Structures are given as structure tokens and as C-alpha cells.
Amino acid sequence: MPSRTKKFRGSRTHGRGKKAGRGKGKRGGRGMAGLCKHRWVWMLKYMPDHWGRHGFTPPRRAEYREINLMRLREILPSLREAGLAREEDGLLVIDLRSAGYGKLLGRGEIDFPARILVDRASEGAVRKVEAAGGSVETNA
Q1: pLDDT per position as a tens digit, 84-119
Q2: What is the CATH number of domain 66-137?
Q3: How far apart are CA 95 and CA 136, in angstroms?
Q4: Whose C-alpha in 31, 59, 65, 139 is 20 to 30 A from the C-alpha of 99?
């Protein structure tokens, strides 16, 4: 039986078509060439995580729903209606924990004595509430 090379003697391309037998003929580019074009399906099948963001995700801080003293004065009537603000011994007791707030911030003014129950509070908020004759009770 003749060898394959002998079989194709006289044939210009040895049965490989025009370009496939020459050099790096049919490979479609080098490396990652064509991943968005002719190698798209290959990329989807074998490299599904090629695009997009991967890697380290920083830990999230505990998120608190915050309220300023200014906003607290605005919503005080609705807190009284809901039973979250009540009078006790001449002080207004405001339960911000039950109202869904986690942190009291100091923007604004407070001009009445109040005992405020909250998870956290800024130094400025505590200072202003104490200057008005009240107190802030926190968990932290």
C-alpha cells in the first residue's frame, strides 16, 4: 500500500484545501483571539466565567437606619400616635429601636428633655440631648 504522501503526489494541496496545509493555517488566531466572534460558543461552554467581576468581596459593615435630631422632631407626633413616645416623670421617653432606627445623629436641635432609647448615637447627639436635660440609652 503506498504511503499517504505518495498517494497525494501531483496534488497541489494533499487533500487539505488551500490554506490548512500551510504553516499555522486553520487555527483562527493566536491565544484568546476570536472569543467574541468565531470562538464565542467555545468560550461560553469552556470558559463561562471569562467575563465579569470575580474575586474578593469586602465584608459589609452593619447598616443602621439613621435619624437626625431635626428629623426626630418632625416625626415626634407620629411616634406619639404609634405609642413609641410617651411621658414618664416629666421626661419624654422615645423608643427609636422599636421605630426601626439604629443610630441617632446630631444634626439639628432638641429643646425638650427626653430619654431616647437607641442602639447607637453619635457624640454630638448625646451632647445635645444631655444639654437639653435628657439622656440617651444605647446598647453600644
Answers
A1: 999 988 889 999 999 999 999 999 999 999 999 999
A2: 3.100.10.10
A3: 10
A4: 59
In terms of Cα–Cα distance, which of 48, 32, 63, 77 is closest to 86?
A: 77
Length of the chain: 140
User: Which sequence spans correspond to the domains of the chain?
Assistant: 66-137
Q: 3-state DSSP call for residue 5?
A: helix
With CA atoms as reference, report the closest residue to 136 among 92, 99, 74: 92
74 vs 121: CA distance, rounded Å: 18
Can you say whether residue 15 is alpha, beta or left, with left for phi > 0 and alpha for psi between -120 and 50 degrees? Answer: left
Q: What is the 3-state secondary structure (H, E, C) of 39-83?
A: CHHHHHHHCCCCCCCCCCCCCCCCCCCEEEHHHHHHHHHHHHHCC
Q: What is the pTM of this model?
A: 0.56
